[in-house]
Specification:
33% of the residues lie in helices and 17% in strands. It is an alpha/beta fold and 250 residues long. The structure holds S-adenosylmethionine.
Length: 250
């Protein structure tokens, strides 16, 4: 559509889901790496950017959907005209603003499953690139099509998206890591204690969500998402993931 909006997708996020994330972020201390997934940007966006750059126009802004503390957003800000981190959680946005001492990025509360809010952001920014790390895999099933539609809306015809999401076999990695004699290590325990459900999405569904909206998978592969938590033996808990670059042409 001319205004970039993807038709037929309705907002679908439960109050319980919103409260789970608000509670998680409220209980997460300040500082880099306090959340299990909040790894150093060199180990996340730093490895993803070279996969996106051959396809992306860096003069467009980049939107980091589900930005959390904004660690990755701040890294991306050095490589694009403008970087905007958006997150469902007000608490996450507050973390991100406090962490951005140099004010290199902008942060806003936004539910990516709310098409009206996404339209407004697209109207404000124009076509943008999108970075999305680990959002769909733990979203409620009913919200996943709307989040995919947010990516489609924000990129419009000129932007490109880099999406990286946990593969379902991450669940067994997490289950094993939780089985030590003292139970799950603390940052992993915080995920479970707040009722969050990692790696629940079907692996094939994720690229299909985007294809069904007319997007093309321009490149894809598998990688590990680096975590900040360790097992009792000191080894880091990294999680298998799939990545894809998305756009409107082939
Ligand atoms: C697993 S964390 C990943 C955070 C960040 N992308 C990173 O890699 O560190 C998922 C983030 O997505 C946010 N989130 C979940 N559902 C969302 C939605 N519908 N719209 C926007 N953000 C959402 C959560 O609040 C959380 O900060």
């Amino acid at each position: 559509m001319a205004d970039g909006r993807v038709p037929g997708v309705r907002m679908s996020v439960s109050t319980a889901y919103c409260e789970a994330w608000e509670g998680f972020w409220r209980d997460t201390p300040e500082g880099p790496g306090a959340a299990i997934f909040d790894c150093d940007a060199e180990l996340a966006a730093g490895t993803h950017l070279p996969l996106l750059q051959p396809f992306a126009d860096a003069t467009l802004p980049i939107v980091d959907i589900g930005c959390g503390t904004g660690t990755q957003t701040r890294y991306l800000a050095a490589h694009f005209n403008r970087a905007v981190g958006v997150d469902l959680s007000q608490e996450a946005v507050a973390h991100a603003r406090r962490a951005d001492a140099g004010k290199v990025a902008e942060f806003r509360q936004l539910n990516a499953a709310d098409p009206a809010a996404v339209d407004e952001l697209h109207n404000n920014l124009g076509d943008a690139n999108v970075y999305m790390r680990a959002v769909v895999h733990q979203s409620e099933p009913s919200a996943r099509p709307a989040i995919a539609a947010a990516v489609a809306t924000l990129i419009g015809s000129r932007g490109r998206a880099f999406v990286v999401e946990l593969l379902s076999r991450s669940k067994s990695v997490l289950a094993q890591a939780a089985q030590g004699p003292s139970g799950p290590p603390p940052k992993l325990a915080s995920i479970f204690d707040h009722g969050l459900t990692p790696a629940e999405a079907d692996d094939a569904l994720i690229p299909e969500l985007f294809r069904s909206l007319g997007l093309t998978v321009l490149a894809s592969g598998e990688t590990d998402l680096v975590m900040t938590e360790h097992r009792a033996d000191g080894s880091r808990i990294d999680l298998p993931a799939q990545w894809m670059v998305l756009g409107r042409d082939g």
